[in-house]
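Hi R.,

As promised, here are both runs. First protein below:
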Amino acid sequence: MTPLKDFRPPLAAILRGLDERRAGEVGALLFGAGFRILEVPLNRPGALECIRTLVGIAPSDALVGGGTMLSVADVDAVHEAGGRLMVSPNCNPAVIRHAVAKGMYTAPGIATPTEAFTALDAGAHALKLFPAESLGLRGLKALLSVLPAGISVWPVGGVTPESIAPWLRAGASGFGIGGQLFRPEMSLPSVADAAQSFLAAWRVAAR
């Protein structure tokens, strides 16, 4: 299984509140810009329909799935919709194991070493450091000092183009990007501009 950190660029677009009527155009824009990981959180109406649409237009090297996946039933629903990415804000071993058993990439949310090791023991492929803006660079460095080498940790929450370089220097493997990239009220040109800003920041920081 390809590690999540090996997706390039390792930037996950978090499309919270995406309307199913716009899913195709927003997804096509982001895929065309270069994003390869798209996540639709389940705590908004129409999320599963959006996932189905995005899966239908995704390039062969892309990964589409759900966020805010809190239960085994959520895993089953996203998998049935074609999603192969499981993201959550919390660490629930039963949900992680169920997603792993279905062949999904799993990136559960963690904020402490205890949660991190619990997630890894359940088979998590990457760790979502959340809320990153509260835990900060020092929190990431401290966490990485006790984790096995090579574990992918993705800051999520408050990530901006300007913060990508400092996070990478602190040891981040990738990022989940939400409201700075997409909000339901944003126009397509605004989403396109934001996407290019993040991609440019990543290219410069990853040199």
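And here is the second one, sequence first, then its structure tokens:
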Amino acid sequence: MIGVSRASSTRSYQLLETTTITSTGPVTIPAGTLFIEIECWGGGGGGAGRTETTAGRNSTYYGQSGGGAGAYLKKKYQISNMQVNDTLNFTIGAAGSGGPVSTNGGAGGNTTLDTHKRSATTITTFSVSAGGGDGAVASTLSAATSGGSASGGDTNTSGGNATAGGGAGGDGGAGGTAPNGGAGGAGGVNSSNAIAQAGASPGGGGGGARGENFLGNLGVGGAGGVGKVIVKYYG
């Protein structure tokens, strides 16, 4: 928490507190709050696992796409009877899982502003969502993966698309980058570190697996980055 004194001018507002959350639940509105500014990031999608085809004794391994990034939104919320100990209730978008061999990556979860409550009474129900990025599809014909979309904010920005994988024997694609948020994970490459990398939080997409018959977990896509919310209280 960051405490800042209220401005002396009745026309000026100053930041009272800042709260950052990466897990689902309520935040409590502090005394003196007149309006709130909210930033949300959806969860990043996971990269796909290595895919193979077999013809006789020969197998071909395909590099896979990274996961799409979570979307971003910003919203200002003001209500005339906002009271101390009211709560804002959020759902935080989960990170999309990285796909095992021949398996799609998991989609990132949506980060949503759900309700403003006073004890058990709901003051306002919202339709505010920063969508999670898509999980990459495991395929021999790798394609770019879409980032999530946002709605209900004053500013709504879609997440970045991931890069397609490199095809037969090729590198994995990089995960998408979340707006003002987490960078996408690098795809698996033919180097000393061939593991697909996880996306950075908040909202980065996981990298896709490399198209090679490595042992261990090197055929697994990278997980996405978890979503996040930042709430700023002004008074």
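A quick note on the second one: The two ends are 15 Å apart (CA to CA). Let me know what you think.

Best,
J.
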